[in-house]
Write a structure and sequence with these properties.
Blueprint (H helix, E strand, L loop, with lengths): L1 E10 L2 E11 L3 E6 L6 H8 L7 E6 L2 E2 H4 L1 H4 L2 E4 L11 H11 L6 H10 L15 H9 L9 E5 L7 H16 L3 E5 L10 E6 L2
Parallel strand pairs: 3-8, 3-9, 6-7, 7-8
Antiparallel strand pairs: 1-2, 1-4, 4-5
Helix pairs in contact: 4-5
Length: 204
């Protein structure tokens, strides 16, 4: 279970949000909504432990994530709104390295199979710098097929994707939720995902 208790975010002399509370259980999806500059990415970074709330606390299974360290990170996969791919590495190398950093080692064959499934067949050995933004996004999101974490935190996962890729990501999210996973995401695009429950968290 993931909980946010009275969360507030301050950037410089500006308060982005305050008094944010939520509870997310297995099989549930939480969509974080709000206009640009409302703090959506800041909230997701807090949930990942990359920054601390100005006020409040985040709990994982009843324990504050600040006290859990690696135990929490082993349960969580974060994909930011930037693809995070390295220009000079191939799609295959990017996937293998990012997976290894997340604690999952995969073979070249497994990585190739995943990239083909993601619609990148024939581009596995191309450097990321020659791929389109949508293709680079597919490389980043391919991690969802190999990670073994319960909590996915996704910042604009559908950005730059075409219709077929959007449907593919929706399918991956649905499968994860059906298997008892949890997803927190932001998106400016409509997404139709079947979940045990969908929580809408609105930032002003």
């Amino acid at each position: 279970m993931l909980q946010g208790n009275n969360l507030a975010c301050v950037r410089g002399d500006r308060r982005l949000f305050k008094s944010i509370n939520f509870t997310l259980e297995a099989g549930e999806l939480m969509q974080v909504n709000g206009p640009n500059g409302s703090g959506k990415t800041s909230l997701l970074r807090m949930l990942c432990g990359l920054s601390n709330p100005a006020v409040g606390e985040i709990f994982w299974n009843g324990a504050a994530i600040r006290s859990l360290g690696g135990e929490y990170y082993q349960e969580m996969t974060y994909i930011g709104h930037l693809s995070g791919t390295k220009d000079d590495l191939t799609a295959l190398e990017n996937l293998r390295i990012s997976s290894a950093l997340g604690g999952v080692k995969i073979t070249d064959k497994h990585a190739r199979d995943v990239l083909v499934y993601m619609g990148l067949g024939g581009r596995e050995f191309l450097p990321a710098k020659v791929l389109s933004q949508g293709q680079r996004r597919r490389v980043a999101l391919a991690r969802l097929l190999v990670c073994k974490t319960k909590l996915w935190i996704l910042d604009e996962p559908l950005a730059a994707l075409d219709v077929s890729a959007v449907k593919l990501i929706q399918k991956l999210i649905e499968q994860h939720l059906k298997q008892g996973g949890m997803v927190v995401m932001t998106t400016h695009q409509e997404i139709d995902v079947t979940a045990a429950s969908t929580v809408q968290l609105q930032l002003a």
